[in-house]
């Protein structure tokens, strides 16, 4: 059993879900430490206003470290009280020297401490997410520039459509992530505020200097001040999880793109593989996109939590601990999932295998059919758009049904021959001649977006 536990622990560190850094922010020890940080900030804020002695605030701050408390006693007390915070308050009170313990948690209510603690951990989690998104944007920008003119098939409805460039694909992806960067930044001011409503949202327990105390505590923690108490309004956290859901959806899209492009029949781009990596326990040739699959699983799991995050906004009366406990579960899970998904995407795209030769050869698979629009638009001049479309569509059908090259069927058609000299037709059927403004679009996207 012990061996199994160690093995599972080692898997957790390099887990397919989450990463060590995000788990470090959202483990139980950090949960309790965030509450202790709020208790210490409250004491310092009260001392700054003369509500409690400064010596008491210093003693509370020095003692408010989890390693100074007996976690075994905390666990036993939690089982007895069936309360999330009271055991921690009791332990902190008992551990403070002299009479400093009498000033612990003065005027506060449980949800003030819990919600503000959640905000502190969310801030740390958002810092990680922002850094990961920034790195992914940088990687995609480099790929966009490197493959600015690398031709590949554009696909619509699962079918080859027209020529495009891999650089443009990467530029589009980085633009989507740039918008998520903005969403993450814009959300911070709304989310990163203290919760100091007191027992029923009136701040009565904080006394006549309640507003000044609120500002002092916010300054101590580096947070903002909310206009009104928000025990029963969880829209801040719901927005946070919705934005993480958006990031997760983009992460899954990128993972699925690599998953598809790496198919044996496509082979245009692929997930990097370490020399020691095993694709299959029985098929040595397999190079499975395991990181992309982990991203897909994590992102789908996270997005499924978004409706539950919205449900937390439907709180009862002036306080509803059912909402609080739901967030207690949701926040760590969602941050851990997105942290792992983004870490794996950075690994995938940071060393992405790109095969320009395969991209070009795939463009030639249709024998020029991907240039049918170019031919049709050129014929629209002498024939009119509708007649040209009808003509080229018939030629495409004949090419497919007779298994003849598109170029040969075009040249054999008298209307096409009369309207297009052979040399011009050859140019129209060159994929490189019909990538449109792909390179300029890459330039515009990178110029108009911020480089992290």
Can you walk through the features of this model?
With 452 residues, the chain is mainly α. The protein folds into two domains: 337 residues, Fumarase C, Chain A, domain 2 (Up-down Bundle); 55 residues, Fumarase/aspartase (C-terminal domain) (Ribonucleotide Reductase Protein R1, domain 1), CATH 1.10.40.30. 64% of the residues lie in helices and 4% in strands. The chain has 20 helices and four strands. A two-stranded antiparallel ribbon has the order 1-2. Strands 3-4 form a two-stranded antiparallel sheet. Strand 1 and strand 2 form a beta hairpin. Helix 3 runs antiparallel to helix 4, helix 10 runs antiparallel to helix 11 and helix 11 packs antiparallel against helix 13. This is 3-carboxy-cis,cis-muconate cycloisomerase. It comes from Polymorphospora rubra. One of its GO terms (biological process) is 'de novo' AMP biosynthetic process.
